[in-house]
Amino acid sequence: MFESVAPIIAVRDLDAALARYRRLGFATRAYDGPERYGFADRDSVSLHLTEWAGHDPLSTAASVYLYVADADAVHASWRGAVEGRLDEPRDTPWGLREFAYVDPDGTLHRVGSPLSR
C-alpha cells in the first residue's frame, strides 16, 4: 500500500525557496547536514527542495498538483505573497476549480479543488 509521496523540486537558492514556501503558508526547514536540502510541509502535503547549481528554470523545472479544499481561498491567500506568475482560478471541464502558479525557479504549481455540484 502506498501511503504518501514527496516530490523533490530543484531550486537555485534553497534559502530563498524556503522563504517563498513560508510566505505561501508552508512550515519549512532546512536539512541539518552538509547537503543543501529542505522541506516544505502543509497539512498532509510535503515537498522536498534540493539546491542544484545546474538547475535551469527553462529546462529542468518541475510540476506539482496540489489538491486543496478551496482553490479560491488558497489563491486569495497567495495573491500578495508570490513571486512569479499567478493565474486566476477557473472552472475546468474535468470538474475542478483550479489555478496555476509558476515560481521564480520555474516550478509549476497547479492547485485545484472539486467544483460544487
TrEMBL record:
Domain VOC: 1-114
GO molecular function, one term: lyase activity
Cited Pfam families: Glyoxalase
Matching SUPFAM superfamilies: Glyoxalase/Bleomycin resistance protein/Dihydroxybiphenyl dioxygenase
PROSITE patterns reported for this sequence: VOC
Sorted UniProt keywords: Antibiotic resistance, Lyase
Any single GO BP term: response to antibiotic
Gene3D superfamilies per the UniProt record, alphabetical: 2,3-Dihydroxybiphenyl 1,2-Dioxygenase, domain 1
Span of the signal peptide: none
InterPro entries xrefs: Bleomycin-R, Glyas_Bleomycin-R_OHBP_Dase, Glyas_Fos-R_dOase_dom, VOC_core
Family of this protein: Belongs to the bleomycin resistance protein family.
Protein name: Bleomycin resistance protein
